[in-house]
Amino acid sequence: MWTSVPWMPKTVENGSDPVTIVEVGPRDGLQNEAALVRVADKIAFIDRLSAAGCGRIEVSAFVSHKWIPQLADAEEVFAGITPRPGTRYSALVPNLRGLERAIASGVTEVAIFAAASETFSRKNINQTIGESIRTYEDVTRAARAAGLRVRGYLSTSFGCPFEGDVPVERVIDLTRQLFELGVFEVAISDTIGVAHPGQVRSMLDQVTAQFAPRTLALHFHDTRGTALANVLASLDYGITTFDSSAGGLGGCPYAPGAAGNLATEDLVYMLHGLGRQTGIDLNALAGASLALEPALTHRLPSRFVNAFRSHRVASPPDRG
Ligand code: MG
Questions:
Q1: What's the pTM?
Q2: Catalytic residue among 150, 252, 292, 305
Q3: pLDDT, tens only, 46-62
Q4: Which of 194, 246, 266, 308 has its CA 20 to 30 A from that of 219?
């Protein structure tokens, strides 16, 4: 049966705390897209995301353009967006040089990214885990001295594409090291999308015994179709911050053709159905993703966006 309006979830109450979504599409998503999206299209996308109510947006990364050509325009993007009161805009910084560029662009929140696997750390940032922590110690100290907030990512926390299993003890140890550097939040990240709810529960049993759930974020990928189930499991542990990517932007660099980041629309649909507030207007968010889609080389993978698209096409008022 076709409906003339996009379907919205029927709310069934499940907890009352609002959920914070960190929208990583402009950075984590576009970094992993084949297309080089024009600066103007990125700026329009980010402004639509903030207008849709996204309260935290990871805009770009201040890394070498040789390293990530998709994000070589970080300065221009930050200069072009129209800051919305109440939205926090952030950027990844790998080192002090990146931090200097971020500060020069007026950025007030940066993120550092460590890995829970030695092999992944060497291949991703060409440093051992220990070397990266020493680098980030300097970055975090300088950032906080300049009045910036610093977020920490811990990638490959649920598994490594080169080493396989990652011990929970190592995740806990590195999460502690990141907090000791002075980050306000650690995003425990499933970089290759292998986590499932059983593993999430097993990990959070141990991790939330050590750290307050409100200081943690979970960053899931939907590579194997488990991302929403993982979020649902995490909510039971009091986790209230999740990363996701509008439209499901960005594939999985370790599994060509497979899904990467959890799509923000799919996450918001589930959360609103559970009665959890996100501050995000789901229709406006899907509209932001669809407006960007022509700049990409493929259709967006978000399930919600594709249902939304079908409903709009089938809706008589939209045909004319
Ligand atoms: Mg990701």
A1: 0.93
A2: 252
A3: 999 999 999 999 999 99
A4: 308
